[in-house]
Queue: 2 jobs
Job 1
Amino acid sequence: ESYNFLILEDDPYSFVHFLDKAPTTFLELDTKGRVIRLDSISKVISPGLRLGVVTAHKEIIKKLTAHMETTSIHPSSLSQMLLYKLLNAWSVDKLQKHFNDVQRFYRSRRDVMLSLIEKHLTGLAEWNVPKGGMFVWMKVNKVKDVMELADKECISQGIFVIPGHAFNYDRSKPEQHIRLSYSYATPEEIDKVLVLSAPPHYI
């Protein structure tokens, strides 16, 4: 506040958490109207909708609305109508049940990926245990740069992984990390990509 900053809270996975209690948001702590919160409908209802929600002080919303009216005009009318009809048909309890089902689904996918990572990559890599979302962040040991691993062992065989370079401000630097997603892949596909991530010449 002393620097007159606004906080942009971009939290598309807020409803895809694996905790007993939802994490506290910056918006919940905001008493001065300084937080602009972004939530995603696509992550918890349907990715094809391509819709999100902005929550902010009413004066900020006015400016964002004016900007949208002169740029994209508005999101898909069909997507908006589908969401409107759905939210009118569902009770709050049913919506919460859906969120709980989404959390259970992705938690089970996460657990499958973690068990297969432990099976194939113990001693070869280090990884986090996600508390939410759809991704595992992994450091590949004994590899100075994962770009070759991603290109030659994975992407060339139709397996898409994200090298850590994509998340660095300087993408020219060597990077040992990759991001793996468990949102769509089957357990069999996850098993395949992890086998490819640990070929003999990387062990």
Job 2
Amino acid sequence: MPKLSDKAEDVLESLWTQTEETDRANERDETPDLETLRRDGLLQELLDGDLVVLRQGTLELSSRGREVARETVRRHRLAERLLHDVLEIGGQAMDEAACGFEHSLQEGVDEAICTLLGHPRSCPHGRPIPPGVCCRDNAGTLRRLVAPLSALKPGEKGRIAYIQTEEARKLQKLMGMGVLPGNDITLLQRFPSYVFQVGHSQFAVDAEIAETVYVRL
């Protein structure tokens, strides 16, 4: 299949986002209307590639389109994670740079980035990152730049990158311990519980909570 235009990939990405199972009620629909897609030649490009279908005036992803959209979304959200966790770029600058990354990353580069980041499951906005082959077959084979606290060895230290949980109870507990992005953290022991130090204080948590704290090594 010929290389898709960047705008066509953006349309597929938007259609994917609309069909995700997570709550998108507060997100703005950025998919162009059909008339705009026709005028810009994007609708024909997507139809010619067997990437979308029209059902009663509504544009939907075909099975092939879902595969392409999934990879586009994966590249975009991995790029966001890389920019946020490693390069410490956030906000609008991160969003704009990630859009460029998703269209320029060559095949296989996203797998390398994913492995180096420790196979993150969500982007900085909390949206799920579709897993790749590396997540299933090669997890942990390379040294991670960002890893969950539960993967550290006693004595290892780093800086808290993000907390991967939407449960208010866990967030409140961790925040009360001073576990906040940007703070330094050191793992002291792994058994029978995970004991770590933040600042001058030491805390113990179970594995479930330790797995939600991601550390930049």
